[in-house]
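Late entry, flavin-adenine dinucleotide complex.
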Amino acid sequence: MKKYDVIIIGCGPSGVAAAKILKQSNVCFCIIDKNKFPREKLCGGGLTHKTTSLLKDLDLSLDSISYKSSKDIDLFANNINKTISITHDIVMIDRLEFDYNNLKQVINDNLFEKEEIISIEDNILTTNKDRYHFKYILFADGVNGYSRKLIDDREFGFCVEYSSDIKTDKTVLDFCAIESGYGWIFPKATHTTIGIGKFNNKKVDYQNLLCDFAQKHGFPIDKTRIRGYHIPVFSREIYKKSVIDNQYILVGDAASLVDQVSGEGIYYALASGKAAAESIITCIKEERELNKIYFEKTRNIYKKLIKRKALSKLLYSRYEDLFIKIGLSNKYFINYIERLFG
Ligand SMILES: Cc1cc2nc3c(=O)[nH]c(=O)nc-3n(C[C@H](O)[C@H](O)[C@H](O)COP(=O)(O)OP(=O)(O)OC[C@H]3O[C@@H](n4cnc5c(N)ncnc54)[C@H](O)[C@@H]3O)c2cc1C
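Prediction complete; structure with ligand written out below:
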């Protein structure tokens, strides 16, 4: 049986941030992922300024991947179309490349891919291939991972996305594309990602809405290549449940840490993964309670997400059109959009 102080389940942004911190402190850890890398992950791949700053702090470099940066955003709402210039670039990456590149920067011989968890009991985790003894488990396994069984009552929104070979320089956010959400066009170095998403589970015809949205902005769509994925809805209750028995800790999408206005999750995945790893290190050294330290360390993330949840309720209400129409002619709203995406 293999023995580790910490097992990280999942190596998207949250798992990798945790791995980076544990590696720097020479903690004995491993990562288990059910996929083999490089692997696909449905995502717009937009990195805000706070995300690229955090990547720098974590010493996770983007140097060897292709990306595109943009300062101008075309905003659409009702009959209004306005281009805003944000202070800092949004960096557009491809998740297949980004996640693989991050992973290569944190592992040595401690990565176990294509492993499915079968059970976790009495400090022993059993997969379809091996058994592992652990002190702590950090669940960074995303929205549909094993950890979904550990917390009930989670809520989800939904996004659909299409990857077009047509290249563009325009970044678009279109609040007419879908009710209670928005459409996006995110240009990449080699292709363009076009998607729509929303934060409630009211059924809509996603395929046709995406086709209409893409057509409006000049992108033909092959319907057979549209893909969809759940997006978690942040809640105080889920956050409070994300440390279990002072031994298991859920981060990133597994803990529903997603901005409910913009759908931004990569920043919160990195920040919570980092905080969880730092909290575990403190517990190993000082025998303190994991939940207290983790909730202290993530207070700022929590406050930010609570504010965004409140704004989302206002923005994506039945007064959505009116709110956005007024908003687009209001400098405070434009500044806010800048802060959200810049
Ligand atoms: C369509 C769409 C567009 C988005 N666009 C953006 C955007 O532009 N910018 C942004 O900031 N955020 C965006 N997000 C959100 C962002 O993708 C997520 O918040 C982010 O990927 C969360 O990172 P994570 O590490 O928590 O989980 P993930 O990135 O989902 O990684 C989870 C990992 O766990 C592994 N795994 C899953 N189950 C198991 C298991 N049972 N056992 C072992 N391993 C497992 C998976 O293989 C995967 O590698 C978007 C989301 C969607 C759906």
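Residues 41 and 95 are 6 Å apart (CA to CA). Will revisit in the morning.
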